[in-house]
Design goal:
This protein is an all-beta fold. It has no helices and eleven strands. It has strands at 2-8, 10-13, 18-26, 28-39, 46-51, 57-59, 67-72, 77-82, 91-101, 106-110, 114-119. The strands form two sheets. Strands 2, 4, 5, 6, 9, 10 and 11 form a seven-stranded mixed β-sheet that branches.
Length: 120
């Protein structure tokens, strides 16, 4: 069994910063890509940022230059530092990880989501 547990998030004013983190635990052999997605009310879930096992990153155009994704492989944790936040960043943020278990099964896992609310 594999679990992704998110922490962080909350409510801040526009222009401020927040960070979220997501720790994976369980029957893990290897963690491949990790990433963050978000879903605002009435909208589809969208990719925010991703990071591969070699550290290469990818960002949505809407957050590039403001958000930074990083990972600590020793802790099986992915982070998202969010700066210069805007009201349109308000959403539930979900982490995702492509994980190979010790049974050599590879699939994606999702966290439970954490609310980020930005007020103007």
């Amino acid at each position: 069994q594999v679990q992704l547990v998110e922490s962080g998030g909350g409510s801040v004013q526009a222009g401020e910063s927040l960070s979220v983190s997501c720790a994976a635990s369980g029957n893990i052999l290897r963690i491949n890509d990790m990433g963050w997605h978000r879903q605002a009310p009435g909208k589809q879930r969208e990719m925010v940022a991703s990071i591969r096992s070699d550290g290469s990153t990818n960002y949505a155009d809407s957050v590039r230059g403001r958000f930074t994704i990083s990972r600590d492989n020793a802790k099986n944790t992915v982070y998202l530092q969010m700066n210069s936040l805007k009201p349109e960043d308000t959403a539930v943020y979900y982490c995702e990880a492509i994980i190979t278990t010790r049974f050599y099964v590879t699939r994606d896992y999702w966290g439970q989501g954490t609310q980020v609310t930005i007020s103007s």
